[in-house]
């Protein structure tokens, strides 16, 4: 029996902790698999996926900036990936590429169980309209906050993402709106940074007055990339939290879909924080 091959594809990907996480999942659940990371040139994603399939790859996680492109490659797409039009992992079967998105499940799980916040009835600001934000909006709506404002540097992108999710929002009685990042005047209980500002080392794209007293400020990134946003949140009286819990939770869901066994995500998150010196 040969070892099953998996990887994460992204640009950049050197910082990724996904290989550490999935290797630990495999050890704890007795799975014979090898998980690596691959830095993909920006214009070579489809070819890189095909090359990995040709090498015998069983599946891959997909990170920035290929989540929209990955969804377009799929021959079969889950309902949540269809809604997002983005996916964070692919499964390869003979003649088939299956796309799914576990980002939103991972985020909501970490908000509820890691951060210990109540999402129902809350005011949520989701910053960004790229692949990461697209993947989490549906599950956020299903958690039934009172309102979600999707704010993006380019308003039309936010409006398109919101329009796609309006029927789901109506079903769950969630007020859903789009806004540009400048000029936000409302306050929010939960602010989620799904923009590329963290990776680019840019400043926080909104004013601190969006933070309601005691607000949770959550960056979907982790490590050095998340530090400026987390420092900003702390300096303005908010509760900062990085995306490490989301990373492990979405990875656990993907692992379960690939291997048919749910790994102990809470244990691995605790070990990862020790591993990283958090």
- Count of DSSP E strands? 12
* Uncertain ranges: none
β-strand percent reads: 15-25%
Radius of gyration: 18 Å
Q: Helical region count?
A: 11
Shape: globular
Class derived from helix and strand content: alpha/beta
In whole angstroms, the N-to-C terminal distance is: 38 Å
Write up this protein.
The protein has helices at 18-29, 45-54, 67-73, 79-84, 103-114, 131-142, 155-171, 197-200, 227-235, 244-259, 265-276, and strands at residues 4-10, 33-39, 57-62, 76-77, 89-93, 96-100, 123-127, 147-152, 175-180, 188-193, 211-219, 239-241. The chain has 278 residues and is of the alpha/beta class. The strands form 2 sheets. A 6-stranded mixed beta sheet has the order 2-1-3-5-6-4, sandwiched between helices. Helix 7 (155-171) links the parallel strand 8 (147-152) and strand 9. Helix 1 packs across helix 11 and helix 5 (103-114) packs across helix 6. It is globular, with a radius of gyration of 18 Å.
Short description:
42% of the residues lie in helices and 24% in strands.
Question: Which labels suit this protein?
Answer:
278 residues; alpha/beta; 6-stranded mixed β-sheet; 6-stranded parallel β-sheet; 11 helices; 42% helix; 24% strand
Fold blueprint:
Elements (H helix, E strand, L loop, with lengths): L3 E7 L7 H12 L3 E7 L5 H10 L2 E6 L4 H7 L2 E2 L1 H6 L4 E5 L2 E5 L2 H12 L8 E5 L3 H12 L4 E6 L2 H17 L3 E6 L7 E6 L3 H4 L10 E9 L7 H9 L3 E3 L2 H16 L5 H12 L2
Parallel strand pairs: 1-2, 1-3, 4-6, 7-8, 7-10, 8-9, 10-11, 11-12
Antiparallel strand pairs: 3-5, 5-6
Helix pairs in contact: 1-10, 1-11, 5-6, 5-10, 6-7, 10-11
């Amino acid at each position: 029996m040969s070892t099953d091959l998996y990887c994460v594809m992204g640009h950049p990907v050197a910082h990724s902790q996904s290989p550490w996480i999935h290797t630990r999942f495999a050890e704890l659940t007795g799975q014979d698999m090898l998980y690596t990371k691959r830095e993909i040139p920006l214009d070579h994603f489809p070819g890189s996926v095909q090359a990995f399939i040709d090498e015998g790859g069983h599946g891959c996680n997909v990170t920035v900036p290929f989540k929209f492109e990955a969804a377009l490659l799929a021959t079969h797409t889950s309902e949540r990936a269809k809604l997002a039009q983005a996916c964070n992992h692919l499964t390869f079967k003979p003649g088939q590429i299956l796309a799914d998105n576990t980002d939103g499940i991972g985020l909501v799980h970490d908000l509820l169980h890691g951060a210990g916040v109540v999402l129902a009835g809350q005011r949520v600001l989701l910053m960004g309209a790229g692949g990461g934000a697209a993947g989490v909006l549906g599950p956020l709506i299903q958690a039934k906050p009172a309102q979600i404002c999707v704010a993006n540097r380019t308003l039309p992108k936010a409006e398109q993402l919101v329009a796609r999710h309006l029927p789901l929002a109506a079903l769950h009685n969630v007020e859903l709106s789009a806004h540009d990042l400048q000029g936000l005047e409302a306050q929010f209980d939960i602010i989620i940074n799904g923009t590329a500002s963290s990776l680019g080392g840019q400043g926080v794209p909104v004013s601190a007055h969006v933070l309601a007293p005691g607000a949770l400020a959550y960056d979907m990134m982790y490590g050095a990339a998340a530090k400026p946003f987390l420092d900003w949140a702390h300096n303005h009286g908010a509760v900062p939290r990085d995306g490490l819990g989301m990373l492990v939770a979405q990875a656990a869901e993907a692992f379960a879909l690939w291997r048919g066994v749910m790994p102990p995500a809470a244990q691995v998150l605790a070990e990862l924080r020790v591993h990283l010196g958090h």
